[in-house]
Amino acid sequence: MKQILSLIFLTVVVNVLLAQTPSVLVETESFDEKGGWVVDQQFIPSMGSPYLLAHGMGEPVENAKTKVTFPESGRYYFWVRTMDWIPSRQETPGTFKVVFDGDEFNKTFGVNNGWQWIAAGRIKVDNSKKILLELKDETGFEGRCDAIYFSKDKNDHPPVELEEMTSWRKEKLGMPPPKIEADFDLVVVGGGLAGCGAAVAAARQGLKVALINDRPVLGGNASKEIRVHTLGLKVYDIVEELGTDHYPNGDAGAIPATENIESVVRAENNITVFANTRANSVTKTGNKIKSVDCFDTHTHQETRFEAPLFVDATGDGWIGYWAGCEVRMGRESRDDFGESMAPEKPDGMTMGNSLLWNSVKIESDSKTDPENKLNVGWQEVPWAMDVAKDYNATRGEWFWEYGLLMNTIYDAEEIRDHLFRAIYGNWYNVKQDPKNADLKLKWMAYVAGRRESRRIMGDYILKESDVINHPDFEDGFVEEVREIDIHYPKGGEYDFITYADFRKIEQYKIPYRCLYSKDIDNLFMAGRCFSATHVGLGSPRVMHTTTQMGVVVGYAAVICNENNCTPRDVYKNHLNTMRQRLDKIKTGEKFKH
């Protein structure tokens, strides 16, 4: 008994001492100055955190900098969480250094396989002053750093498992409980055009709306970060307001388009936009969502949003997934819904993710280019050539697409990185041709455009026959005529190139019943996570159509608010009111796309 008590006492003492060990956790996304590094939050589900990315397109980016205060003086061990994004090769393109008060630490980072905490060594600290901590990119080729942890205990290794690491981060950062934001009638999660459409429609009718977006700008695939032009029918005036010109994919025309989207949304006094805010969980009471918990992707400050109604416009169906809704991902079998374009057996294939990019011709002369740097080839990228092979193109289009046979949510970083390699290797090939000597790589996305992932099931599931046979649904408030467009791997030596199978159709309607969850009483869906089969998604996944979904959902939320009813009740009892109100905002123009 005495031995057991002694062991318990010793364990308690050790735990107390460990808890008191001086330590500092520095999250790189919270750096005071990001320099040329960018915050990348796309892969939190698989790696646990936002991180800084050195997206330099082959040119080293400016240092990221921050000041760090330590609890006491002395020597600190430190760990760096990073990865080599092309493992198992001699070449490591994404390397960087850590700099303390102007002195480079004598270790190269970004050379380890997979996301890991790398034990780096020790530094000596004087806590009477703040240390200037910098990340120095060495290559411009997508180096990445998540966090740096300092501790006086060399055995105080940071946790590895994601769930444990999340709790540990909160403790080390001293995060307070979530701030409660409850003064909203509607919470819209997702700042793409579907979410923007829902927010604007509801706000213009008097609802107080929280619009939560995990990126710094609104617009989703239409934003300047991804740069896809909008397609589909502009049935409602809000769709017209939020839509873009038909610029080439990847074009700088997305910059003024993003400014327009921001101005339309922010002009509404009833909308509060929460940018750089990522949802991470929900709480429920019975079959209703009570709140959505989110965190700031730069500061990690948590906020809890409470409201009677919620819209999942995340694209990936996260709110419905966390709430326990039935979700689908991948292809149904041909027999499940009698779909001719479906495979004989169900599988996990989806449409893939794309990175757009472009180049520009620059006139080189002694004034603008004194060293004649433009009119030369490009640096060798041996780590990219086994992907790009001999492919040679001067811009990336929609068919630069990868991940159709992977999980577009949990494998998203690997998918994006494969496309990085395709682009960089392709550009090396381009620059070997003397006629391309004056071409310069101008812009490349690092945020992937995603076409398909989870779909949340509603009271109705849109399928191929609904799109082809165009029944006249009494609740068919979303309309489209764009062809069914499903992408497939092209095969052959270029695995990053796809093709599309198009099927012409007549104008059809999407039932309102596809836009609310059959399982959760106060959850709407707008965007590509709406209730559809894989084939049913093929036509209406474009942005004018998904914006229509948002508008319809916004109007339905107002009726729910007025009548203290559920989204399903709107279908059962208030369709005429919906129809009358939506008719007032129809554009009246001939439908075209």
From TrEMBL:
Keywords: 4Fe-4S, Iron, Iron-sulfur, Metal-binding, Oxidoreductase, Signal. It comes from the Bacteria. It comes from Draconibacterium aestuarii. InterPro entries: FAD/NAD-bd_sf, HdrA-like. Residues 1-19 form the signal peptide. This is FAD-dependent oxidoreductase. One of its GO terms (molecular function) is 4 iron, 4 sulfur cluster binding. Coiled coil: none annotated.
